From TrEMBL:
Organism: Citrobacter freundii
Protein's UniProt name: Hydrolase
Transmembrane segments annotated in the record for this chain: none
Pfam families: PTE
Record carries keyword Metal-binding: yes
């Protein structure tokens, strides 16, 4: 950061629209790729409703990005296991980061997708977190709150057959 000794830790959050990467978004992705190449910093992307993750990675890769340094956000909002597996195959990490947003996609289906990923030996490419973006998501306002992942979702994973080592892998 100019004028300081501070350096960015991550290039984030660059995103695309639902079902399309607009020309302006493409420019942002290219700029992020250039920043990544210059700094070596990882990139975190945003998908809209779990769309365009593969396309984001193809674009970044075409501009020289090391995809093992990229994590794709919001991959858990629909049945898209094939796309998730393709993103992992390309070398990226996928974020299951809308856990608890059952009005978009039920946690039970997230768990089923995680089982399919685990059965292929790919859990090391999954990151679990929660996307708390509104006041209504806070417990005080009737939402799941910040602890839902640890107090509700992780016990559901364990009950469904995930080991503590599996969970730790996804939370690291």
């Amino acid at each position: 950061i100019d004028g300081t000794e501070l350096k960015a830790g991550i290039i984030a959050e660059i995103g695309s629209s639902e079902g399309v990467i607009t020309p302006l978004e493409e420019k942002v992705f290219i700029a992020a790729a250039r920043a990544h190449i210059e700094t070596g910093r990882p990139i975190s992307t945003h998908t809209s409703f779990s769309t365009m993750g593969v396309e984001q990675l193809v674009l970044l890769q075409a501009h020289g990005v090391d995809l093992s340094r990229v994590t794709v956000g919001h991959c858990d909002l629909k049945d898209n296991l094939d796309n998730i597996l393709r993103m992992i195959e390309l070398g990226a990490y996928v974020q299951f980061d809308t856990i608890g947003k059952n009005n978009y996609y039920p946690d039970e289906k997230r768990i089923a997708m995680l089982h399919a990923i685990r059965d292929r030996g790919l859990l090391s490419h999954v990151m679990l977190s929660m996307d708390i973006t509104r006041r209504s998501h806070l417990k005080a306002n009737g939402g799941n709150g910040y602890d839902y992942l640890l107090t509700t979702f992780i016990p559901q994973l364990r009950q469904s057959g995930f080991s503590q080592a599996d969970v730790d892998t996804m939370l690291r």
